[in-house]
Write a structure and sequence with these properties.
The chain contains 15 helices and 13 strands. With 366 residues, the chain is α/β, with parallel strands linked by helices. The protein folds into two domains: 177 residues, Rossmann fold (3-Layer(aba) Sandwich); 165 residues, Rossmann fold (3-Layer(aba) Sandwich). The strands form two sheets. The chain has a seven-stranded mixed β-sheet, sandwiched between helices. It has a six-stranded parallel β-sheet with strand order 10-9-8-11-12-13, with helices on both faces.
């Protein structure tokens, strides 16, 4: 639990299923603190009995990374399928409810915010039963929407694109709002010249650099194919962010011409060193790149939510969605070699950032 002090009391309920949801939650809390509010960020998995929370924290990266077909079946069955108020995901939600009720009673928030589908269902459950007396706001942190984000008793959905907001409005019958992606302010203001960033990271000063992302837990997908292809492509240096996966870093470091980085604290410097970002899931790094003004290419997205988010980004024309290595190489070359294409892509990405989420949350409290 993270806490800061002020006027409104805001509960931000998230889940450590990958790093992005918690990053967004903490940035929202930071913004609320700067506006004089009190905000706590709570991981929903910590409210469950310990074996359940630990299991869910482990099983998600295992499914996505090691059993993608099984994860696609789980995603289709529990996330996408038609259902009422997330009924198919009822067990983990119910396990968190006793702890959530105690938390709500102790903290007595003026507004509660969810940044993960299961936390949206949990807050909606309490709201429906009269155990949560303040407005409940669902922040849909992904470019695509699935049925686990929606609970009829929640008061408001806030999305990161007009496209997602239209989908949420159609599903709920209440008007969803748009904030754009939630990223730290340093991604909206390039921190240093490219030459300095490359020198800091030990990268070649000349030529083109592609940064390849795998998320906080190193969900590789086909990143090895992408990195090897770029390393063979004249003039390009691939830099792979391996998250917390030392095994992934060892495998990639064995490919000639590939640079690897483990957990990165100074992500703005990494983006400043790059010409393009190659993504596989529409995750946090791609959102940071869009705000930063770095073009994105999505190569063979991960199953489930990764594929849906990549397709949503492609519909917004903020990424090239490619499946062949030859397509990847053509896409990165075009984004460097065609100034008009690059400028248009950057403008569309930065145009997604339309309103401060903290302001919307404050307004929702009435």
């Amino acid at each position: 639990m993270d806490e800061a002090g002020g006027a409104l009391k805001v509960l931000v309920l998230s889940a450590a299923m990958g790093g992005g949801h918690l990053q967004i939650s903490r940035e929202l809390a930071r913004r609320l603190q700067a506006r004089g509010d009190t905000a706590i960020v709570v991981d929903m998995l910590d409210l469950m009995p310990p074996p359940t929370g630990r299991f869910l924290h482990w099983v998600y990266p295992w499914l996505v990374g090691s059993a993608p077909r099984l994860y696609q079946r789980v995603y289709d069955t529990f996330f996408v399928a038609d259902q009422q108020a997330g009924e198919r995901a009822g067990i983990p939600v119910r396990l968190a409810l006793p702890g959530l009720r105690r938390l709500v009673a102790d903290f007595d928030p003026d507004v509660a915010v969810s940044t993960y589908p299961l936390s949206a269902l949990a807050l909606g459950h309490l709201r429906q039963r009269g155990d949560l007396h303040c407005p409940s706001v669902t922040v849909v942190t992904t470019f695509s929407l699935n049925n686990l984000w929606i609970h009829p008793a929640n008061d408001l959905e806030v999305c990161i694109s007009d496209q997602a907001a239209a989908d949420a409005t159609a599903r709920t019958g209440r008007t969803a709002l748009v904030s754009g992606p939630v990223i730290r302010p340093e991604f909206l203001d390039p921190p240093m010249p490219r030459a300095e960033a490359r020198a800091r990271l030990g990268l070649p000063s000349e030529g083109r650099v592609a940064v390849l992302t795998t998320g906080s837990v190193g969900l590789a997908g086909d990143v090895e194919d992408a990195a090897a292809s770029l390393a063979r492509h004249p003039g390009w240096t691939p830099v792979v962010l391996c998250g917390r996966s030392e095994d992934l870093r060892r495998r990639l470091a064995a490919i000639p011409g590939v640079h690897t980085l483990d957990w990165v604290d100074d992500m703005p410097a990494v983006l400043a060193a790059a010409d393009v970002l190659v993504d596989n899931a529409g995750g946090m790094s791609s959102k940071e790149a869009l705000g930063f003004g770095l073009p994105v290419v999505t190569f063979r997205p991960l199953s489930g939510h990764g594929r849906d988010d990549a397709e949503a980004m492609a519909r917004l024309a903020v990424t090239d969605l490619v499946s062949e290595e030859s397509e990847l190489l053509r896409a990165v070359d075009a984004l460097v070699g065609d100034p008009a294409l690059r400028e248009g892509r950057i403008k569309r990405g930065q145009a997604l950032f339309v309103q401060d989420l903290a302001e919307i949350v404050e307004q929702s409290a009435g």
